[in-house]
Amino acid sequence: xxxxxxxxxxxxxxxxxxxxxxxxxxxxxxxxxxxxxxxxxxxxxxxxxxxxxxxxxxxxxxxxxxxxxxxxxxxxxxxxxxxxxxxxxxxxxxxxxxxxxxxxxxxxxxxxxxxxxxxxxxxxxxxxxxxxxxxxxxxxxxxxxxxxxxxxxxxxxxxxxxxxxxxxxxxxxxxxxxxxxxxxxxxxxxxxxxxxxxxxxxxxxxxxxxxxxxxxxxxxxxxxxxxxxxxxxxxxxxxxxxxxxxxxxxxxxxxxxxxxxxxxxxxxxxxxxxxxxxxxxxxxxxxxxxxxxxxxxxxxxxxxxxxxxxxxxxxxxxxxxxxxxxxxxxxxxxxxxxxxxxxxxxxxxxxxxxxxxxxxxxxxxxxx
Length: 368
Prior knowledge:
Its main location: mitochondrion. This protein is an alpha/beta fold.
């Protein structure tokens, strides 16, 4: 597998002609020169965004999963992150806290849900018990997969030097977000009167400066992961920075269900100890549910006296901590593109199946 390189924005901007055309979509850099003539949307629509970030137009068209998978061929790299920090993407999950860009957290108030069984019908999130006295009442989730809906910012907290938690409110106190475990949502915002998708480097700057009462728009659910009990017996997770977000959904669902015997091992990489998101919750799950969950923290800049992992998550760590590849095991990945791509290669060398460009639920190696 060839190494995917980081490419600076200034380099991408040089390639803006029909005969030499690069574009950016969700951090990824694509050389679409040979695709121009065959583009269903016409030549002009591609040339117009040459050398630029075309995420807005790409999402507005609503490309299918198959269309996204075919984009692997022209991908030549990903957009270089200027500060060298962890992944700067955005992923809002059914759990409360998330860090994006400069460390902005997002929370959709009263928004917890468990997987639905019929479209748009969701029970309220609850801690499962073995004995349920009566059927769970289903309610319609707030999220709509095709339409963006507004949610206002009602609370903003600074948790650390680079982490904020933002709380957004759903329309009513009993409104359910309707987000299946393992899935995420998209956000959109009005910037200078235009609909923008605050992805990548823009995300943190935009979200960090939101004021109380400001609104963002949300749409979903999105993603191929829909966790169900008994999916596998053993699950390895590799997360970097904000990549803990979808992992935590699954960890909580597994640990809080006394009938779920899935064994989960998490390798969680961060720069500093302060950067570890949800640390108290993760450590508490490990103490309370040792048969279900184990976490191994890895820091690239550890403090004096740090006794856990040092450096970066490696192939040797995965080999030592994770189960071997089988029909009863799975590895989940979420984090910085460099880490995810490196670990995909490492896992293949350990005998795991080659990951798809766009992950699907049955895959041995699933990347959010």
